[in-house]
Amino acid sequence: MSGAPTKTARAIAAAVQTGELSAESSIEQALEAIARRGGLGAFLRVDRDRALAAARAQDRGRAAGRDPGPLGGVPLAIKDNLCTRGLATSCGSRILEGWVPPYDATAVERLAAAGAIVVGKTNCDEFGMGSSNENSAFGPVAHPEDPERVPGGSSGGSAAAVAAGLVPLALGSDTGGSVRQPASFCGIVGLKPTYGRVSRWGLVAFASSLDQVGPLARDVRDAALALELMAGPDGRDATAAAVPVPRGLAALEGDPRGLRIGFLRDLSEREGTEPAVRAGVRSAAEALAAGGAAVEETTLELAEYALPVYALLATAEASSNLARYDGVRFGRRTEGGAGPRGMMEATRGAGFGPEVKRRIMLGTFALSAGYHDAYYGRALRARARLAAELDAQLARYDALLLPTSPGVAFRRGERAGDPLAMYLSDVFTVVASLGGHPAISLPAPRAAGALPVGVQLIGPRFGEPLLLRAALALEERGFAAAGVA
């Protein structure tokens, strides 16, 4: 793992709680690390003054007897598509450059209430559209172990920041794999909650029926704690489910005995999956079985249709959601052309990058008269069937095991001219996204000098405790990020 060994968020909070470490020192260390690794490109902006002021206030409160909270003094990085009051949020796009939200996203608000201190906003593919973090209008993010490679996307800045030891915890968003795939590439833990488990209030929309906020961390228990603290109903988001939030997630035991695991071996060994990935998933199945879990090979017959179904639905929703950025309602205006139409064309032409334009055009076509039912309507029906098949499998099994991505981090520019090859990076992650199921990526053991490989577990809807128990069982058997104290 690149960078110095990093304490977990829980260890930092415990040290701040006892006074062994001040919140100010914790934040200063993070800010120094971010400055040292500026060439990584992980951060678009750092909120140094406010972060230090918040840390000093927390230290004064602790000295006066106030509890700093379960994440007291923990440096937190936020993906640039989550709103942060008083701190610019651009979604990695020129069209929102300089926009400063007047409120915090619910997920940010809740983690801050638990004591976490936001140190800055992380770089991302524009509007969350990408699998490499090469689509940001403000430059790419480098892989923390090999600067010639990509960190994955779209939450590549958050993943790189955690993997490089700049922060112990970061927030990303996952539409088709944008938390899990960069976690796989960077060798850390990435968790996509059940759709509706975490409020989307303040998350700038890409595809509203798929988007979820999720944590990136260096171990499973930190991810579990972050989920517990930010999950739950929210009156500002109608899609936030009124389902009780499980408590004590970070204290779960990782005992695999009694767990039923469905191993999607045929999917894991499909053509195009790299040998290191196949080996990592097989070793995960063997580790769970050796620990006492019942591991059984199974299949998802409709999985082969997941990527085209996702592409149709996500681009259609993107076309609808991004229509508001026209220089009148939202977005930085670019003057040009004749009249309002010319201005809007100039605004969208200059403000959006090539990948966003591609997805808007694909989505607009899928929704157009004469094609709506042939494309969008059929994709909706296929999604329902895939979700039903997943539900049926997860009635038999506590979790499904498969790769996170078919390969390791690829070289920068390698897939820039081949959108289909880029989209195939998400072939395994879109399955859980379409079903709305929770899923987690965690790193498999690797030889010295080898690039990280992620294995993925999918759990039943609102079954995060079972999912996290299975993930902990793997982590405690050697599937853990390196250098964690």
Describe this entry's structure for a reader.
By secondary structure, this protein is an alpha/beta fold. The protein folds into 2 domains: 9-261 and 396-475, Alpha-Beta Complex (Amidase signature (AS) enzymes), CATH 3.90.1300.10; 303-380, no CATH class. It is 38% helix and 11% strand. The chain has 16 helices and 11 strands. It has helices spanning 9-18, 23-36, 48-63, 106-113, 156-163, 180-186, 220-230, 265-268, 275-290, 306-321, 339-351, 354-367, 372-396, 419-423, 430-435, 464-475, and strands at 43-46, 75-79, 117-122, 169-174, 189-192, 212-217, 260-263, 294-297, 399-403, 439-443, 454-458. The chain has an 11-stranded mixed beta sheet, sandwiched between helices. α2 (23-36) packs antiparallel against α3 (48-63), α10 packs across α12 (354-367) and α10 packs across α13 (372-396). The longest helix has 25 residues, at 372-396. 60% of the residues are buried. Mean pLDDT is 95; it is low at 1-5 and 481-485.
